[in-house]
Amino acid sequence: MTRAIKIAPSILSADFANFGAECAAIESQGADWVHVDVMDGHFVPNITFGPATCAAIRPHIKGVMDVHLMIAPVDPYIDAFANAGADVITAHLEAGPHIHRTLQAIRSHGVKAGIALNPGTPAEAIAPLMDMIDLVCVMTVNPGFGGQSFIMSQIEKVRSLSDMIGDRPIHIEIDGGVDPKTAPLVAAAGADVLVAGSAVFRGGSVSAPEVYGENIRAIRAAAEAAL
Ligand code: DX5
Ligand code: ZN
Fold first, then answer.
1. Closest ligand 1 atom to the C-alpha of 177?
2. How do the residues of the chain divide into helix, strand and coil, expressed in percent and rounded to 5?
3. Atom 1 in ligand 1: which residue has the minimum CA distance?
């Protein structure tokens, strides 16, 4: 099933001292979702910010706030990120032993539930969870940092997930190393939400936001050309 491509810039590549204006700038330049990367220095070897920052950013986002939790444990913090105003909360399958409970907790807030898979985790791992998720996020880098190289072997995983999902209303999101070269590969394999950090923010700023627009359009056009 082919779905409209959505571009979700990751503010991991934005100016951390100016998140509000950065969110407004990417949305005005055509971003569909705003992707917010939360890292704890434990599940991944980098630290970003927590729910208070998400709550502060929220009023500056008109559309979808897509929160990607790279934290373990994750369950104690679901309430806080839901209360911060997330529209989508994605937790990692690898973040703990009780992913079913995690997904239930996310949905109990009326928030869409996503599950993220590290590059070493097979597509089949989500088979028992299909009725619990609104999104599966395929990590095409090892999570923790922006600007890493896309791992080509994940394309086959995207194809498998697309077959497993069929007509179910589950987004396939790609996170890591997405640019105009890799976007068509994952779009053709069935992905519909493309997260991009460095490829969106490169060369632009809140005072030169049109560069963000050019970058977003280049990724979108490359992906749509592959459908
Ligand atoms: C990586 C993050 C990504 C990251 C993507 O751990 O989850 O969202 O910002 O950055 P790029 O697009 O630069 O690979
Ligand atoms: Zn992410």
1. 14
2. 45, 20, 35
3. 143
CA–centroid distance for 40 within its chain? 17
Note the ligand closest to the C-alpha atom of 148.
1
Q: What is the pLDDT of residues 20-65, one digit of tens each?
A: 999 999 999 999 999 999 999 999 999 999 999 999 999 999 999 9
Answer whether 216's CB lies under 8 Å from 30's CB.
yes
pLDDT tens per residue across span 148-205: 999 999 999 999 999 999 999 999 999 999 999 999 999 999 999 999 999 999 999 9
What is the distance between the alpha carbons of residues 54 and 117, in angstroms, rounded to a whole number?
22
Position 195, amino acid: V
Q: Is the pTM of this model over 0.90?
A: yes
**Is 175 an active-site residue?**
yes
The strand pair at 64-70 and 88-92 is best described as parallel
Q: Indicate if 32 belongs to the active site.
A: no
Q: The domain 6-225 is classified under which CATH number: 3.30.300.210, 3.90.700.10, 3.40.1000.10, 3.20.20.70?
A: 3.20.20.70
Interior angle at CA 216, CA 212 and CA 222, nearest 5: 150
The proportion of the chain whose per-residue pLDDT surpasses 70, expressed as a percent, equals 99
User: Which of the listed residues 37, 66, 178 should we mutate to test ligand 1's pocket, taking the one with most ligand atoms within 8 A of CB?
Assistant: 37
